Amino acid sequence: MRTKLIWLTGLLLAALLMQFGCERKTVTTTEVIKEVSPQDAAYVGSAECGTSGCHEGVLATFRNTGHPYKLNDADSARLPVGQYYPFTSVPNPSDVSWDNISMVIGGFWWKARYIDNEGYILTGANRQYNFETQQFVSYDAATAPRKPYDCGPCHMTNYVDTGHQGGLPGLVGTWTFNGVQCEECHGPGEFHAAEPYKFAMEIDRSSEACGKCHIRGSVQKIPAKSGWVEHHEQWNEMFRTKHAALECVDCHNPHIGLHADNPERESAIKVACESCHLAETQGFLASGIGHAASEAGPDCIDCHMAKTGKSAVANATTFTGDVRSHSWTINMDPNAAMFTQDGLFANGYITLDFACLQCHTSETKEWAATYAPLVHTPIGSPSSGDFSQLASSTLKGH
Fold first, then answer.
1. N or C: which end of the chain has fewer CB within 10 A?
2. What whole-number distance in Å separates Cα of residue 375 and Cα of residue 392?
3. In the prediction, which pLDDT does 371 show?
C-alpha cells in the first residue's frame, strides 16, 4: 500500500508540473562552476556582464568608479557631464581642437591629459587640466612637443606589449578595451557569458591583484617627487605597514567609487576604522583634546590617512596633497623626516607636519609633538596632561 501511495504521489506531482509548465532547469553539483574560464577565451566587454539579468547592479556602480575611465576615446570624453563621465566633463586645450585629439588620459577625477592623432601625449604648457582648480597647467615641459603613450597595462584591458594600437606610432602596445574594465580583473568572459553555470570568472581578492597597478617601482620602496608621494602607490605604502596582513578588499568595495559626487560613496568603504581599533576610538572620543567634540572635527583618516600624495594639485603651505596615504602610522618625533634625504622616497610613515599642521597651520612640528600623544588619551587619565592651553588657543578650525 505504501509503495502504491508513493507511486501515485509521484504521478500527481508530474501531472501538476506538466500542467503548469514548470521548465526550471536542474543542474548537478558537477555541472555548476566546473572550471574557470580559460585565459584563451575572448574578451566580450563590460556591457555583456550587465545583460540577461546577471550583474546589472554591480556594473552600474562600477561605472561610477575611475577604473573604466583611465583611457578614453576623445569622441566620448568630450561629451557633457553625465553622458560619458558620470561626474565630470573634459575641456580641450585652447590651442588644440578636438579634431587633433584622439584620446584622453583620465578625466574622471583629478586631471586629464591628451593624446594626439598619432598616439603621442601632448606636453608643454597648458597640457594638463586639473579639476580642483579648473585650470590648465604644464605637463612634462621637458619633453617637446609630445611623448609616446606607454602606460600599459594599467590604463587598459588585455594589454599586450607589442605593436601599436590602431597603427598609431605613439601608442606603445595593443589592447582590447580602453580603461580597466571588468575582464581586466576577472579574466576573459566569453565562456562564462555563454555558460555561466559551467564556467566561473576569476576572483582574486589578494592585495597583489590590486597592487599590479596601484604600485610604482618596487613594492619595497615608496617613490616620492618634489615633496610628495607619487600617485598610484597604495600598495607600496600598505606593504610597509601591519595592514599588509589584510587585503585591500577587506576595506574597499572595488565596485563602488569614492568620488565626492558619487551617491553610493558611503558604501565604498566596507569596514570602519573603529571596527578593529576600538580602544583607540574610545580614547579619541574621551580625550579632552577636543577633536571629537563636534562633527567639524577630524575623522581617523584625516590624520592617519593624511593627503601626502599628489596626483594633480597640492598645497605645500598646508601640507595637503590630493591623494590619501596608506601608511597610517604617525611618527610623533618632531625630527622625523617624511622623505629620504634625496627626496626620492617616503619613509613609510606620516610625519606631524602632514598629520597636524594641515589644520594647525600656524604651529610647528615641535608644538604638535607635545599634543599628539594625547589625541587618543582619555581626559583624567594619568598621562592626559593639561589641555587648557590647547583648548583655548590652538585648535584652529575645529
1. N
2. 16
3. 94
Q: Which residues contact 204 (CB under 8 A, 6 or more apart)?
A: 185
Cell numbers representing residue 181 in the block: 574594465
* Burial category of 389 from C-beta neighbours within 10 Å (exposed 0-12, middle 13-18, buried 19 and up): exposed
Contact 213, 154 (CB under 8 A): yes
CA distance 154 to 173: 12
Chain centroid to CA 67: how far?
8
Q: Tell me: the pLDDT tens digits for 41-59?
A: 999 999 999 986 799 999 9
Q: Report the SS3 class of residue 121.
A: strand
- β-bridge mates for residue 147, sequence order: 121
Nine-digit cell at 47?
556591457
Helices within the chain (DSSP H only): 2-19, 46-49, 56-62, 74-77, 182-186, 190-194, 207-211, 234-239, 248-251, 278-286, 300-304, 352-356, 365-371, 388-393
CA distances from 261 to 82, 85, 265 (A): 12, 12, 8
**pLDDT (average), residues 203-226:** 97
Which grid coordinates belong to 178? Answer: 580602453
Look up residue 378 and give its amino acid: P
| pLDDT one-digit tens code per residue, 236-272 | 999 999 999 999 999 999 999 999 999 999 999 999 9
Please report where in the chains the cell 615641535 appears, as a residue: 366
The model carries a pTM of 0.86
Of 145, 139, 126, 305, nearest in space to 229 by CA: 305
CA angle 320, 324, 325 (to 5 degrees): 105
Q: What is the 3-state secondary structure (H, E, C) of 42-54?
A: CCCCHHHHCCCCC
- In one letter, which amino acid is 31? E
pLDDT confidence tier of residue 34, bands split at 50, 70 and 90: low
Cell numbers that stand for 268 in this block: 565604498
Residue 162, Cβ density class (10 Å: 0-12 exposed, 13-18 middle, ≥19 buried)? exposed
